[in-house]
Specification:
heterodimer; A: about 425 residues; 9-stranded mixed beta sheet; 13 helices; about 15% strand; disordered N terminus; B: 14 helices
């Protein structure tokens, strides 16, 4: 019988173990300082703090520095680390380049707002750091391509914060698809959200002093807009300039799992057809991918459903799995929430040591992000788009191709 | 929140809202912003331009029109957008529209701005020229490599890397030789990027020059290894093969008191000995047409690399030499054991500008028919047409005179057809 563990042993793309390698541990299980992976954090907010706590659980990790353009968050993360280690050693920066210039830092956790993810990751990779970056990792197709190319060029380990690739129920569902238990695949379903965003600017407010909030740096590569405290307090989602919309928001998890299930980590769908808020996509191998925000069985947020000629499976963030009658014997129910990053963090650290590809490596991440961006472009244009996954361009649609990238505000560039 | 996209089945916009929008802008009324975006999305590019040119249009309206023009703007939009490139708040919005605009007029507008603007706005324009991979802009962009403001020079370097091609590569190589500290890491990155497109386009030789230049420039940790890996990969593809195995002197012949292998390098040293005449470590396989590359580190004295030479008894060699000496002669062609002395000088104004004293330097010898070329650290220092001897051995020199030491490593040869 298939279990999660046997799957991890046989089908892990990089064969990465999920336990701490013995070589990382000194005697009595304590890790020698020279054997520790050293980590810095950039833009650690609520989600970042969750992931950071999972990092701090790891015996072979040492967190050395934090960077934030907001004084308040900088200090909060420094306190978190200092309390944990019982010292005052955690360095705090407001300029990420100072953190990235430190040769004693091996890896960085990037958990800024979405607008900074690709750029900060690229800077870190160029500075020789391995990167764990929260999702979504880009706002455009061009950013995703540049990010994957940079990780390859600089031969760094990159893990996107799409932790469901290391959560038991999702891995099991993917395994059923990849192992042929579902038969020839027909339709993959990805739970996405309402695609809408807004182009509004919130009413202008006086910007605070730079040492408290560096608004210019907060905006980074995004178009200038007047300051409003709501953005900085975390309510930047839904603004087109700052956020990729509801397809990307969940699709980077769910479309990503469909890509994996369809063995499409280095390609993507070739056609996108908007149907209201749903997007129907088609792969070259005939498999369909339906991005939809309704009609789920209630197994939790970020659900996926894989349908083949012999059966189907559906699962979500509750950990519960439903499957067709013939597959009930294959199912192991789980209670692990889909948001938990612990195993994903461990996978990353193991790969930092082994130099192998982690589950959510840069190219797979780029391809699933690009599928979400392409779907959102099709939705915005309200027409079917054909996509060439080799050349990474839309076929015969100049307007769509012009939406693959956005000019960055000076002086930023990818 | 409102949709960024009208429902597909939404009827065509009546003519009136266009007027309303213009009137609103003219009166400076507060914008019901999202409604405006829905209208903007449905307006013809020509109408968008009328609104964009309206001096009373709000900043918000102009910004949003530029963002829509990114997808639908035409040649007619270019002059209006060009007029915004010098505006600190709207320059980026203008580039937002110009950067993806297919018409070559957008290139001309950005080139024009690159000659007028300065500071961050100039950096932005250079970035956009890079994104557009506008090869016609290479000379203009390359001029900005010399800009006193590091941010401008960095933007120029990144743009050249992205545009790619032989001309961009030559500009990057030239500026690397000047070793300007504050732009080095961006230059290294630009060379890696440019090297990828060159090698994909079969310009392997130039790609190799870029990677070698990066490796030589002592880049940040990890980057030298990346360049090295690319070099091995491309050289293998090109047909280069090692002529020194890194462990012992198999295939070589020299005075055992003078030559040894240490740390993967051939070490020649006259320590404790007084040489009465020059002595050579000889690679016994004669070569006719070939491309030789190696790294060498000279500590004092005079050394060189013989090629197409004649081996005589007693580790003596006669023929042409790629010369090097502490403080001079690097990059020159010298007639060892002959009457011509220095045949082609390569030091003054050439090798002297690129040699790193007492450090590892790259030396290259290319012989094809009567053509002979020497390169030091990627710079062509001597070129000669000579038919005296078209085939012969390669040999490494220790010079008589004061005690000296020379090291060679990573010797590899490609036989030319």
């Amino acid at each position: 019988m298939l279990t999660r563990r046997s799957f991890l042993k046989t089908a892990a793309p990089a064969g990465a173990p999920l336990i701490v390698p013995a070589s990382a541990l000194g005697r009595n299980g304590a890790v020698a300082p020279s054997d520790r992976v050293t980590l810095g954090g950039i833009g650690i907010g609520p989600r970042g703090a969750n992931v950071l706590n999972d990092f701090l659980e790891q015996p072979d990790l040492r967190f050395l520095a934090v960077c934030d353009v907001r004084n308040e968050r900088r200090e909060a993360v420094k306190s978190l680390a200092d309390n944990r280690y019982g010292n005052r050693d955690c360095a705090a920066y407001s300029d990420m380049f100072e953190l990235l210039a430190r040769p004693d830092i091996d890896a960085v956790l990037i958990a800024t707002g979405d607008r900074w993810h690709a750029l900060a990751s690229i800077f870190a990779l160029k500075a020789g750091k391995d990167v764990y970056c929260e999702k979504p990792c880009s706002l455009t197709i061009a950013e995703s391509r540049a990010l994957a190319d940079t990780a390859r060029r600089y031969r760094r380990v990159f893990q996107a914060g799409t932790q469901r690739r290391n959560i038991a129920n999702f891995v099991l569902a993917v395994e059923l698809a990849r192992s042929g238990k579902l038969g020839k695949l027909k339709t993959l379903h990805a739970n996405t959200l309402d695609p809408r965003t807004t182009h509004d600017w919130l009413p202008p407010e006086p910007a605070p002093p730079r040492q408290l909030v560096d608004w210019d740096r907060w905006l980074g590569p995004c178009p200038w807009r007047p300051y409003n405290s709501a953005y900085v307090a975390g309510r930047w989602r839904g603004f087109w300039d700052l956020h990729g919309g509801g397809i990307l928001e969940w699709g980077v998890h769910t479309v990503d799992l469909c890509q994996w299930a369809n063995d499409a980590d280095r390609t993507g769908p070739i056609e996108y057809t908007p149907q209201g808020n749903h997007i129907l996509c088609r792969y070259a191998n005939g498999v369909h991918l339906l991005m939809r925000d309704t009609g789920w069985m209630g197994l939790g947020t970020c659900s996926v459903r894989f349908e083949g000629e012999l059966g189907w499976v559906e699962t979500g963030d509750t950990g519960k799995i439903e499957a067709s009658e013939n597959l009930r014997g294959e199912i192991v129910q789980s209670r692990e929430p889909g948001t938990r990053a612990l195993a994903h963090v461990r996978d990353f650290l193991d790969c930092v040591r082994s130099r192998r590809l982690p589950r959510s490596h840069a190219e797979a991440t780029a391809r699933s992000h690009i599928a979400c961006h392409a779907a959102y472009i099709a939705w915005q244009l309200g027409r079917t788009l054909r996509w060439d996954p080799e050349r990474e361009e839309f076929q015969g649609d100049g307007e769509a191709n012009r939406m693959r990238s956005r000019a960055m505000r000076e002086p930023w560039r990818i | 929140m409102q949709t960024t996209r009208p429902a597909p089945q939404q009827p065509p916009q009546p003519a009136q809202p266009r007027l309303t929008l213009g009137q609103q802008a003219a009166r400076g009324l507060p914008d019901p912003a999202q409604e405006k975006w829905r209208e903007i999305w449905n307006l013809e590019p020509a109408t968008l331009l009328v609104l964009l040119k309206d001096p009373k249009a709000s900043l918000f309206l102009k910004a949003k029109i530029c963002q829509r023009l990114a997808a639908v703007g035409t040649r007619e939009a270019v002059p209006v957008l060009a007029g915004l490139l010098a505006d600190p708040l709207l320059s980026h919005y203008a580039r937002f529209a110009l950067e993806p605009l297919p018409d070559p007029a957008a290139d001309r507008a950005l080139e024009d701005a690159a000659q007028k603007l300065e500071g961050p706005l100039l950096a932005g324009v250079l970035n956009s020229l890079g994104v557009r991979r506008n090869a016609a802009a290479i000379p203009l962009v390359a001029r900005h490599l010399e800009a006193p403001e590091p941010e401008t020079a960095r933007a120029a370097a990144a743009a050249l890397g992205r545009i790619g091609g032989p001309q961009a590569a030559e500009s990057l190589l030239a500026v690397l030789r000047r070793r300007r500290a504050e732009i080095r890491s961006v230059l290294h990155d630009a060379c890696l990027v440019c090297g990828e497109s060159l090698s994909a386009g079969q310009e392997t030789g130039l790609a190799l020059s870029l990677y070698e230049a990066v490796r030589r420039d002592r880049p940040a940790s990890g980057v030298a290894e990346i360049a090295g890996a690319r070099i091995s990969e491309l050289e293998q593809r090109e047909g280069f093969q090692p002529i020194f195995n890194g462990r012992d002197l198999e295939g070589w012949d020299g005075d055992p008191r003078l030559w040894r292998v240490q740390d993967g390098a051939i070490v020649g040293s006259t320590e404790g000995l007084v040489l009465e005449r020059n002595s050579f470590l000889i690679h016994r396989r004669p070569l006719a047409d070939f491309h030789l590359k190696l790294e060498t580190l000279l500590r004092g004295g005079n050394s060189g690399i013989q090629f197409r030479s004649e081996a005589l008894p007693g580790w003596v060699v006669r023929g042409l030499q790629a010369d090097m000496a502490a403080g001079n002669h690097w990059g020159s062609i010298y007639d060892e054991g002959g009457r011509r002395g220095i045949v082609v000088p390569g030091w003054r104004g050439k090798a002297e500008t690129v040699v790193l004293p007492e450090e590892w330097n790259d030396y290259e010898i290319l012989c094809r028919g009567e053509l002979i070329q020497l390169k030091v650290n990627g710079l062509l220092t001597a070129e000669l047409r000579d038919r005296t001897r078209l085939e012969g051995v390669i040999a490494l020199q220790l010079h008589r005179g004061p005690a000296m030491e020379v090291r060679f490593r990573n010797l590899r040869v490609k036989r030319l057809p």
